[in-house]
């Protein structure tokens, strides 16, 4: 961020992401808003956590990202979901072909089943 150097909560990785989506100054960040900037970063193919969203809001309001009020966080999440719902799928991905990752519980259950099957096989072979 070149308006006044470094913004509160915005580190080098976040600054690089913002720069790559065309947000180079504090003024440009203010114009985009925390939600707009966050959505731009996600749409560019980066994988930001929600901490970036809160950090950007904190930078714009002058508070630490952990001090962004719960009500404001909830509103920003709704705004992000609404903004993403109105956008076409990212380039290179046809609608309906992007598969969400399996829930952790499903993966854990599959892993446990595989481990039980392997341990059962060992017993059947007479090995310990």
UniProtKB/TrEMBL annotation:
Residues 82-128 are annotated as: Disordered. This is TfoX/Sxy family protein. It comes from Pseudomarimonas salicorniae. InterPro entries: TfoX-like, TfoX_C. Pfam families: TfoX_C. Residues 107-128 have a biased composition (Acidic residues). It comes from the Bacteria. Residues 6-78 form the TfoX C-terminal domain.
